[in-house]
Specification:
Helices cover about 50% and strands about 15% of the residues.
Length: about 250
């Protein structure tokens, strides 16, 4: 399902196994648990100078929500209820990533579709494998409307409206080299191993800056207001801001 490894000041969260890493309720819960562990361990370590890399084994980074699990409910109405539950359960996972007190890097080593695409670009940085794998929003092709918070993520992370149109209104499958040219990801790499190595290297460089993690998370949230509103993250109070300021180097 997933594992969490700590290498120095870098946490590596890996979706394990050779499957599609579909985001069932069980997988979502496991990923959230791993993020909570990383947050807790970074706090014990002083709350400064950590980073997280998320990657996956096999051909897929994540192929989105577990539609087979949804259909296993039997009737079409029950399938819709089950799908709706995954859509709702994924919201706090996005919130967890936005609130995580450290830089986050996705190492996309295979296909990332629909909710898997959202999982990748919710990270601060995206490194992607060039020789295999695409980014793809499949909703239009399968006749499924976008959850509003998906569109908030896409609008916040993809600045070019023509690129956004290709993704949401054409269902275009985009490889790593094209995704890098269009600013969807940061860099393309020749293989899965090179992608993970690049992500870990970036994580180590960022962790070495020894930033206050809570301040980092505060600034991240401030820079992504539309996503934060869409997933129900409340604005920081003046008391919270003053608390962060008191921990500064002023």
């Amino acid at each position: 399902m997933c594992s969490l490894e700590k290498r120095g000041h870098v946490f590596i969260l890996t979706l394990t196994g050779d499957g599609e890493h579909r985001l069932s309720p069980e997988v979502i819960a496991a990923v959230r648990s791993a993020l909570a562990r990383a947050k807790s361990e970074s706090s014990v370590g002083g709350g400064r100078g950590f980073a997280l890399v998320t990657t996956a084994e096999g051909r897929f980074f994540s192929n989105g929500f577990d539609l087979a699990w949804a259909r296993a409910g039997g009737s079409p109405s029950e399938a819709r209820v089950r799908l709706g539950s995954m859509v709702s359960l994924f919201i706090p996972l996005v919130s967890d990533l936005l609130s995580l007190p450290m830089p986050t890097i996705a190492a996309v080593t295979g296909h990332a579709a629909a909710a898997g695409f959202m999982l990748a670009i919710t990270h601060d940085y995206v490194e992607m494998r060039e020789d295999r794998g695409v980014l793809y929003m499949s909703e239009l092709d399968i006749g499924m409307p976008f959850p509003p918070y998906f569109l908030a993520i896409l609008r916040s992370k993809i600045a070019n409206p023509k690129v956004l149109r290709e993704i949401v209104l054409q269902g275009k499958k985009i490889g790593a080299s094209e995704a890098a040219r269009k600013g969807i990801i940061d860099r393309a790499h020749g293989s899965a191993a090179e992608t993970v190595e690049a992500a870990v290297r970036r994580a180590e460089e960022l962790a070495a800056r020894n930033w206050n993690g809570e301040v980092y998370a505060s600034i991240r949230r401030g820079g992504l207001p539309e996503i934060c509103r869409a997933v129900g993250l409340s604005d920081e109070t003046e008391e919270e801001r003053q608390k962060l300021l008191s921990a500064s180097k002023l």
